[in-house]
């Protein structure tokens, strides 16, 4: 076959496959660039499936309709009723909410990766989920902050203007919840595009006043390795709890040989919170893997329950669980994750050099 004809056939084949796969990737894909709410990857979920399972209520469409969560739907309906009853015309307010939700529905759908990714049967069903869950979150945050009464009889006497005068932005109300769990500084979240509550939590927990020395994952996994706490103690390293309320602010003082670590509260929901944040961070690539790297660092420091005991005695761990349970939790927390840059590469290098 002449060389010119051969090239022409290859060109035609390239064009054919380009058109075919362009249609497959762009035309038929349910993944949107706006996707910011993800299902937990299987490699992460298998580490502890129960940590991702909603037991009392769920938000959004993916667990909607599960039998053990149906009782919570009654409370969500009650929350919607209580919210609209504080307006002069509850029926008009319901219509306003429905119109607002209808206008935002396409954008909300894209956040989940497109309509093909949503586990609902109809647009109306998704609107109902959107309405009930949104009002439930608003009521939950405002009741927790004392902006509205928790007693039904008191609530019935409350007027719209009184409620409006006390209102805070929802972001501020959510930050108050994070503050109560983590006891950090109440950070000011400004000029940021916040996608949802978990995204806000990532900004809050993942904030740092330090300028870390990032490293490249491809330079070797050992760049993020650090000896266990007991091994470091034997090598002459001392530990000091620092007053910084941002958990990522870990520093190593080369002169004194002191590893300075903010206190971490470890309670029954700590694993669920961190696993949710790390899963989100692993899926939402605009976010750097800071919390994943934090989990890898803790895994290095904690090898056995004795390491947990040591860090607890230094007031670095405020531990509500047994040392064995904490050790097991921290040793598994980063399993199944991937990072292409290392947040604590410089710190780990300094510690290893000192030892």
TrEMBL record:
Pfam families (alphabetical): DUF247
Superkingdom of this protein's organism: Eukaryota
InterPro entries attached to this UniProt entry: DUF247_pln
Name of the protein in its database record: Uncharacterized protein
């Amino acid at each position: 076959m002449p060389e010119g004809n051969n090239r022409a056939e290859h060109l035609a084949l390239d064009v054919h496959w380009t058109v075919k796969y362009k249609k497959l990737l762009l035309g038929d894909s349910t993944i949107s660039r706006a996707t910011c709410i993800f299902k937990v990857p299987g490699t992460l979920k298998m580490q502890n499936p129960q940590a991702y399972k909603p037991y009392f209520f769920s938000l959004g469409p993916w667990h909607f309709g599960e039998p053990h969560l149906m009782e919570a739907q009654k409370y969500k309906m009650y929350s919607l009723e209580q919210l609209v009853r504080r307006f002069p015309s509850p029926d008009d307010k319901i219509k306003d909410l429905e119109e607002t939700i209808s206008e935002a529905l396409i954008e909300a759908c894209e956040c989940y990766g497109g309509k093909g990714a949503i586990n609902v049967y109809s647009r109306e069903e998704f609107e109902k989920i959107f309405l009930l869950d949104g009002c439930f979150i608003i009521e939950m945050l405002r009741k927790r902050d004392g902006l509205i009464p928790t007693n039904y009889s008191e609530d019935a006497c409350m007027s719209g203007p009184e409620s409006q005068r006390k209102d805070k932005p929802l972001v501020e109300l959510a930050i108050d919840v994070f503050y109560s769990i983590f006891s950090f500084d109440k950070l000011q979240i400004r000029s940021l595009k916040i996608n949802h509550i978990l995204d806000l939590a990532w900004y809050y927990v993942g904030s740092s006043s330090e300028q870390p020395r990032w490293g490249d994952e491809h330079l070797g996994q050992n760049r993020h390795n650090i000896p266990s706490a007991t091994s470091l103690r034997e090598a002459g390293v001392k530990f000091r709890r620092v007053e910084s309320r941002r958990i990522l602010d870990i520093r190593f003082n080369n002169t004194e040989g002191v590893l300075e670590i903010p206190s971490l509260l470890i309670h029954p929901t700590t694993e669920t919170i961190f696993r949710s944040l790390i899963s989100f961070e692993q899926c939402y690539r605009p976010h750097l893997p800071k919390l994943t790297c934090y989990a890898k660092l803790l895994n290095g420091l904690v090898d056995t329950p004795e390491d947990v005991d040591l860090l607890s005695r230094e007031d670095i761990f405020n531990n509500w669980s047994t040392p064995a349970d904490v050790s097991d939790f921290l040793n598994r927390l980063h399993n199944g994750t991937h990072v292409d840059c290392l947040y604590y590469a410089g710190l780990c290098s300094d510690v290893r050099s000192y030892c």
